[in-house]
Each structure stands twice: as C-alpha cells, then as structure tokens.
Amino acid sequence: MTRLSEQDDFQIALCTAPDQDTAERLADLMVSDQLAACVNIVPNITSIYRWHDASGRSAVEKDAEVLMIIKTHAELMAELGDLLEKEHPYDVFELISCNIEQASSAYLQWLENSLRF
Q1: pLDDT tens column, 66-81
Q2: How far apart are CA 19 and CA 24, in angstroms?
Q3: Pairing of strands 96-99, 38-52
Q4: Neighbouring C-alpha atoms within 13 Å toward the C-beta of 12
C-alpha cells in the first residue's frame, strides 16, 4: 500500500441516480470524458431524506435509487459537477467526495493514466 501525499489528490465521489439506466448513462459519459477512471454502480439502495415541496412544506421522503462510486481526481471535480448539472435528471443531485488516503501503487498508476488532468 502506498500512502498518498497532499498533491496526490485522488478522490472517491458518490452520486445517486434514480435508476440503473440513468446511472450507466452518466457513468459512460464520465469514463468516456476521462473525468472518472471507474464508476461502480451499486443497485437497490434506499434513500431516506428530507425534501421541501413547491409550497415550502418539508417532508421525509423514501426512494429507491442506485449509487455511483466514482474514482477521480480533485482537479476534475468541477468538470464532473458541470457534466452532472447538464446530464443528471435531478434538480438537486448528490456529488460528494473524500480523499483516497492509501491505495496500491499499481492502482494509483492506473488511476493517473486513466484520467484527464
């Protein structure tokens, strides 16, 4: 395992989608544009969240979704957000990330070679 330095700012980003087809379409765009090296799609998650309707009333919602686990770099997060802003069906989509702190040297090299930055 290799511990990453501050400048090796590889990220794992999370984004939900309403269904498998949407997640696959978005993942294809991310990987084709080299904004993501890999996107894992986890089916059948349940999201429970608070949402405000058009009248401003708040309610707890429960929906079936899929989760995309996106491997990327901090320098690409803004472009990834732009892509999702344009292509994601949700008005408010989730895009959160955290640093990859440790990974195998071979995996890190593959990430670097697979991304555009």
Answers
A1: 999 999 999 999 999 9
A2: 9
A3: unpaired
A4: 12
